[in-house]
Design brief:
The protein is an alpha/beta fold and about 750 residues long. It has four domains: about 1-145, no CATH class; about 150-285, no CATH class; about 295-495, Alpha-Beta Barrel (TIM Barrel), CATH 3.20.20.80; about 515-585 and about 625-745, no CATH class. It is built from 27 helices and eight strands. It has helices at about 5-15, 35-50, 60-70, 80-95, 110-120, 135-140, 155-165, 185-195, 210-215, 230-240, 255-265, 275-285, 305-310, 340-345, 365-380, 400-420, 435-440, 520-535, 545-555, 555-565, 570-585, 585-600, 630-640, 655-665, 670-685, 710-720, 725-745; strands at about 295, 315-320, 350-355, 390-395, 425-430, 450, 470-480, 485-495. Strands 1-2-3-4-5-6-7-8 form an eight-stranded mixed barrel, surrounded by five helices. Helix 25 (about 670-685) crosses helix 26 (about 710-720). The radius of gyration is 34 Å and the shape is elongated.
Amino acid sequence: MADELVRRAQRFINTTYGDGATLGIPKLEEDGRTSWTVMYALTRALQYELGIDSLSNNFGPGTLAALQEKYGKLDESTIPSAIFCRIIQSALYCKGYDGGEIDGKYNSRVKAAVVKLHENMGVDKVYPGSSLWPKVVKGLFNMDAYVTVNEGSETVRSIQQWLNGRYLLRKDYYAIPCDGHHSRDVAKSMLLAIQYELGMADGVANGVFGPGTQNGLKSHTLSTGSSGVWVQLFSAAMVLNRRSVSFSTAFTSAHANAAKELQSFLKLPVTGKGDFQTWSSLLVSYGDQSRKGEACDGVTKITPARAQTLKDAGIKYIGRYLYNSGTSLPEKEIQPGELATLKEYGLRCFPIYQTWARSVDYYSPRQGVVDCLNAAAKAEDHGFRTGTRIYFAVDYDAVNDEVTSHILPYFRSISEKMHQLGNPFEVGIYGPRNVCSRVASGGYADASFVSNMSSGFSGNLGYAMPENWAFDQIVTKTIGSGSGAIEIDNNIASGRDTGQGDFLPTPAERLDIGFHLSYLESLRAEAVSFMESAMESDKDKLMYSRQLCLDEVLRQDEAITSMARRLRMRKALIQTTAYWEFCHYNNVDHMGAAGVWYYHKGFIPDWAKDLPGINKVRDSSTGIGKIFGHTGIVAWNNAIRSGLTRGEIRDTAKDADIFTMWDRLRSDNPFNVRTVAWVQLWCADGKKGDVSGHEETKMRRPALDYTDDEKFEILRRYQGFGEMAERHARKRMTLYAIFEKYARVIREA
């Protein structure tokens, strides 16, 4: 919302300093909105009036020193000029205070505003009265708020005010915002406060969690009954880390219980005390780096000697990369035989997907699709089973705006594409705390691998540990010796993800890959021509052309390829069935669909209003694969019970379950073609629960090395039994050969 007084401040800068050349910045837009651009202009104007030759946007040590040396403090007796005063008045208005008309007078209104500013900052006891001291001026010339904003916490604000009031007179401490939100500046101020209370002198205290600070904290363990400033600091750190506890000078049983909850959450020893490890985890993202983790990640091949080293060190879970886009780390990607070694030594693996991914420009919805497909394909190549969680990396310091504009759309795209593939793998995220928490809140990742080792990242400083954390990366170190020596990133494991300990063997034949459009016209010519000659039904009653049916099947190539790779079968088997069935979708099927809708919903849908003689029917064949709701249920139930996928077991006796399955088969083409594969697997397993009551003997499930007899039998079973099913299966074998010809050329290219 535009503010007329802010607009007047912008006009004052433009009028006083011309087109901006004097200040070295463009002329301000007079839009009445406070922004960093306006504050930078005011900072430069202040520096200009102070006689500083080199102007900058930063109110740094030089500006602060010049202000201290020239005036000490600013009030009606020391302010050097009307223009100087107008700069101060303009800054007050941009900060939300009464600047006294920007008239160049340090009058009663300005004084009242300064008093209010001191109160809001929490420094009214340090700086009583209406004079502006240099550190307060520094706080005035930025975008920090000193009142709660955006649903800020009043308890957090009281902590911010307390820190300012207690430590602002120290040399390296500057006013922090009092907006009710934890932040990078607040996190650093907490470390400075700890160092000041440890007795560190100005110039020694630096806000870094170094050996001196760590050793000092080891002497300040708190427990029930403790009191004083150390309890204030500990309770403040707890509040800032989103723990439900009062900001207090007394360590009560409530504080002990809150400490136990935090310790349990972070996998620390549960003592209920403010001990060193708890202090560490509250103050820096990596916590106590001497902790032994049960997990690690690295870019080095796990050989038998290294596996023994990891096992001896108490490591259970190893993060390894699915893909390596460069050449500088030749063993970054999982190496041949490596997963077998992990299994042999009783170790488990959680896969990580990362290419470059070190800049905001990398992340986009399109990149999310590419990465999802590549990660799923690589996971399948390496032998990871269905349900494995893949951690997609955000390996840079993404600021909050970038998370909104780029990271969330990227993960939304990954999540949607993985769903379209039938969720063969779970989606996790590797990244700083804020990124992990926001992606999880969006519903795009169900577990976080947190890059807490990067403690300086703005996405870690000032943010609590994500609720869904699985692995906490805290330090890089080398363990073992000789051939067993290995450099790892040591990780704490929460138990949310235990990785995978059993892997599919490397297939003797190549898995199928996606279709290449360069073969589209050739495949169309062969497949369409064959179907035109093979069709036996009345073509006038068919709903769709043979080319349209083929194009739709090819549009589902990602889902079909993913299912084929996942089940280690040939995609041509799925394509053949889907194309054959879709080509045979006719008016009877269409009327049947209207009848199912009428039966379950009680009315005829708009798309069937003109169809004559619609009768209620409980179920019908529908979608690309012409699958009944009943068949879809028993096929999915079979896959779920076999541990090949996850989902809800449904009951064919319940109308609601029949309609739910039928309607999704009708409206969701990727789901329908995935179900084709589950039906084929169910056919191989004996068709238990077949609506016709015609169960079959069990046979080998679809595989890469299926014989012609096995292919024929699956194609026949999908259609049913009897002479027509046999005759059609023979024709489908020719169609299979067409699809497989192109799939083989593409995968072996």
